[in-house]
Amino acid sequence: MAITETAVRLPIPALPQGYRVAGVHAGLKRNPAREDISLVVSDLPATAAGVYTTNLVCAAPVTFDRGRTPGTGFRAVAINSGNANACTGTRGLADAQQMAAVAAARIGVEESAVLVLSTGIIGEFLPLAKIEAGLGVVAEKLGSDSQAVIHAARGMMTTDTRPKLSGSTFQAGGKHYTLFGMAKGAAMVGPRLATMLGIVLTDAAIDASDAQALLSEAAEETFNCVSVDGHTSTNDTVLLLANGAAGGKPLKGEALAVFAKALKNACEALAREIADDGEGATHVLRIEVCGCRTRDEARQIARTVADSPLVKTAICGADPNWGRIVSAAGYAGVSFDPQTTQLKLNGTLLFRDGQPVPFSGAEVSASIKAARETLIELDMGGGTGSIRFYSSDLTAEYVHLNADYHT
């Protein structure tokens, strides 16, 4: 089935050299039009790094991948949606390994060269017969064109309304490289790396230790700065694969710094897409917090504001009820002086020096209604710690979707 381009944000980014992908429907989802098995294959052995959920109740694929990354020699990532393989005990871990083994056999590599990702319902065993059959089909459909990319990205989706993709090229050490990312996540998103999945691919060569350090840092500033509902998932995973297909030695020094910037930009684009596609969302919240003693304190304040149902519903209703924002910052568990705190909403100053500032409520409300993104700026005064954080508003549609998700 051809995918219409209106289903994704254009343009569709290109895969780096040496990668092929595919996605098919294997019966894990009830809707036959929705892919539920995806496969990402590197034609060359790739370095892999991973960052994972901090939820103590973590899914079998998280345990499985965490035990293998960072490392080298990886050839594939097998992905299923519709079933999280979480809270499934020793059988779940065995099923994850079997999923890797079947994928490996289908593409002719060692089982140790495969990682796995799962997302969907918690507490149900994987339907291995369907997954094994699906892996057989998807391995025959691998490609590198835009349709293959979209099918693979859709195979990761649960309640997402569209694939989330990012891509860029960069030059380092006299060579040109490509970076590609795809992610899923629309609810149960409160990463403290959380359900969200992400894969970033590059044709640059990166040492395993460097890949792990750079992915961890990028995730800390991007995926760990997005929240739809504050619920840290059992399955959150972001993987980075670097296969060196563009040639050259592993990036070091200034060349590695160029890659690090491209990686962070790709991860931030995907993180924002996740917030933008929050279940039932009508607004993206971009929360900029500065003037804190540390970045972690800024993140704590931003996350508290982002997760406040009162803030989220105010934005949904285009209500510039600034007291909800300031009070959320006040219970974030971070010490600051309200007398030196300043709040702007879509560029309009609302609160300063511990007291309200006159403003036109109608004009600020109109600015919220007129744009998909709402900007909340909090300056806590004095410090150098800052953060950018993404979230979404809270609508009745979110309640309906999650009330009906399983039943």
Give your account of this protein's structure:
- The chain folds into two domains: 5-274, L-amino peptidase D-ALA esterase/amidase, CATH 3.60.70.12; 284-403, Ubiquitin-like (UB roll).
- It is 32% helix and 27% strand.
- The chain has helices spanning 60-66, 89-107, 128-138, 146-154, 208-221, 253-276, 295-307, 309-316, 322-330, 361-370, 396-403; strands spanning 19-24, 37-52, 71-83, 114-121, 164-172, 175-184, 197-202, 226-227, 237-242, 284-292, 342-345, 348-352, 355-356, 373-379, 385-392.
- Strands 1, 2, 3, 4, 5, 6, 7 and 9 form an eight-stranded mixed sheet that branches. Strands 8-15-10-14-11-12-13 form a seven-stranded mixed sheet.
- A hairpin with a 2-residue loop joins strand 11 and strand 12 (348-352).
- The model is unreliable at 1-6 and 188-194 (pLDDT under 50).
Topology summary:
Elements: E1 19-24, E2 37-52, H1 60-66, E3 71-83, H2 89-107, E4 114-121, H3 128-138, H4 146-154, E5 164-172, E6 175-184, E7 197-202, H5 208-221, E8 226-227, E9 237-242, H6 253-276, E10 284-292, H7 295-307, H8 309-316, H9 322-330, E11 342-345, E12 348-352, E13 355-356, H10 361-370, E14 373-379, E15 385-392, H11 396-403
Parallel strand pairs: 3-4, 7-9, 8-15, 10-14
Antiparallel strand pairs: 1-2, 2-3, 2-9, 5-6, 6-7, 10-15, 11-12, 11-14, 12-13
Helix pairs in contact: 1-2, 2-3, 5-6, 7-9
